[in-house]
Amino acid sequence: MKRLFLIQFLLVALCMSNHAQEFTAFFEEKSLRMDYLFTGDATTQEISLDKLSSWEGWAGRKHRLGELPLEGNGQVEVSDEATGQIIYRTSFSSLFSEWLSTDEAQTTRRSFEATFLVPYPKQPVKVKVSLLNARHEVISAMTHRVDPKDILIHAMGQRITPHKYLLKSGNPDRCVDVAICAEGYTADEMELFYKDAQVACDALFDHEPFKSMKSRFNVVAVASPSLDSGVSVPRLGEWKQTAFGSHFSTFYSDRYLTTLQVKSIHDALAGIDYEHIIILANTDEYGGGGIYNSYTLTTAHHPMFRPVVVHEFGHSFGGLADEYFYDNDVMTDTYPLDIEPWEQNITTQVNFDSKWKDMLPKGTPNPTPINQKEKYPVGVFEGGGYSAKGIYRPAYNCRMRTNENPEFCPVCQRALRRLIEFYTE
With contact defined as beta carbons under 8 Å apart, do 47 and 38 qualify? Predict the structure, then answer.
């Protein structure tokens, strides 16, 4: 038994050593921040490079560098210029992609900010950024060169926003690094923010799989100050000067709380170890939003704060889809019924084998009748992804469907667990 343990230990050590060698062959212990503008309308879209910045330290993964965590609605690919080898990949979703399906996008061109972090290359690289539509087709892409010796790459991090750790489990590159940022808190309200941030942190780790995998997370609260207290509520005619300019009524949906000022978020975080972002809004209005590998934004003083922040983090960290739906509505513009969604917790059954088919108990009816929900905690329940027909969810209820359900369903838990393992193993 001791010999077997020693062999396993040596294999793990060798694997970690190989990962470290691969990283150090191509990258420095620095972060490269790349700012872009996504511009266009429903017909044509363009991607433009805005600015490059850097700071000391890299909080992201140093292993599985060429793999995507999920497909997403967009992807970033870094290639070594000399050899063409892909040396880093990641994926994302964007508010721009959501906006393209709105009525406004049919008649108006707009620009949206987007920011991505990659490890700082030692040699010149080619960076490709791609946007995908609901059919997984590339609708826009751009490739540009980055020379790490470029004197116009802005060195940041000299003035770091005040912050304190709520959870410190290990080195940034071996943990999932979550930054919780203040929005709509004045300099005099930061003690309130730190308390709210602790509530959000506690809420997250009350849920599986975060609870049992807590030792793989670092959480830092970042006291980004605002001139005004509270956030903008357009339907009430209230506009505030806040750190990130967030507001309700995104796309004229009163409860949808987002910010278009993505660069300001990353400005506040420069020099701090972070990968995933939660923004707490100092208001008792109900609402929020979560965008995969971009940010969670939610209100801190509504009675539903705890379940909502966890739900939105399911979007922004886990890439999970909404499992709720509207009766008698089929929103095929969001999820075409002849395409399998990339999100792991909904299916059109075009490729159900890639989802949770392996988790179904033998004999589970497909679709699973609602009146058998107690018999089948994991099933194939029709209704999800905003559509009552043609899209299926894995459980009758889940944190990704209602605020009242106390936990993520088993399928969502597995999807989240796999991502935590991807970032930390």
Answer: yes
Q: Locate CATH 2.60.40.3250 in the chain.
A: 22-155
* CATH for 22-155, options being 3.40.630.30, 2.60.40.3250, 2.60.40.2100, 3.40.1080.10: 2.60.40.3250
Beta partners for residue 376, in sequence order = none
- Residue range(s) in the chain whose domain bears CATH number 3.40.390.10: 163-319
CA atoms within 13 A on the CB side of 306: 14
pTM above 0.85, yes or no: yes
Ramachandran class of 43: left when φ > 0, alpha when ψ lies in -120 to 50, beta otherwise: alpha
Which CATH architecture does the domain made up of 163-319 adopt?
A: 3-Layer(aba) Sandwich (3.40)
- Phi then psi dihedrals of residue 97, to 5 deg: -60, -40
Q: Which amino acid is at 399?
A: R
Whether residue 323 contacts residue 347, with contact meaning beta carbons closer than 8 Å, is answered with no
Q: Tell me which DSSP letter residue 284 carries.
A: -
| Average pLDDT of adjacent 10-residue blocks, the chain of 425 residues | 48 46 92 98 98 97 96 98 98 97 96 98 98 97 98 91 97 95 98 98 98 98 98 97 98 96 97 97 97 98 98 98 83 85 98 98 97 97 94 98 97 98 96
